[in-house]
């Protein structure tokens, strides 16, 4: 089995990555891939704030490779030779006890590339603006952050299926 969770977009050539996954799998082996699937509408302001800072400070908004739609992932898996492709949408609700925990979590995912590109003096202002907006989202048990993933399972065909 090969698993690639929330990371396929880090590969500069996704089709080649799928080809390599296919190559190392034995016939009948399974590939599991997950990709982001939409955002949490309650947090749309965060992207808008990043965009506003981008316009003011001119840092890159590039996060690496492309974020693919589920149809594109299925197409690439098929082109690579995988079959029995299954998909499902998973939703996860993260709850952060305090704003600092939420902020630190931003530094553990792909979004950190954007934060790293904000000039250091502007990053402190950005964090201040973010924390001001966070207060309006606080619930009784903390800050809720919903993530959705589109998960794909694909199989390298058995030799008699090729």
Plain-language structure description:
There is one protein chain. This protein is of the alpha+beta class. Helix content is 40%, strand content 23%. Strand 1, helix 1 and strand 2 form a beta-alpha-beta unit. The chain starts with a strand and ends in a 7-residue tail after the last strand. 10% of the residues are buried. The mean pLDDT is 92.
The gist of it:
With 162 residues, the protein is an alpha+beta fold. The chain is built from six helices and four strands.
Write the layout of secondary structure elements.
Elements: E1 2-5, H1 14-24, E2 30-36, H2 44-57, H3 70-80, E3 83-96, H4 99-106, H5 112-117, H6 120-134, E4 143-155
Parallel strand pairs: 1-2
Antiparallel strand pairs: 2-4, 3-4
Percent helix among the residues?
40-55%
Q: Uncertain spans, ≥5 residues at pLDDT below 50?
A: none
Number of helices: 6
Q: If you compute it from the alpha carbons, what radius of gyration comes out, rounded to the nearest whole angstrom?
A: 19 Å
How much strand?
15-25%
Largest sheet: 4 strands, mixed
Main-sheet strand order equals 1-2-4-3
Give the overall silhouette.
Answer: elongated
Order of helices and strands: EHEHHEHHHE
Number of strands: 4
- The span between the termini is 19 Å
> What structural class should be given to the helix and strand makeup?
alpha+beta
Overall pLDDT score: 92
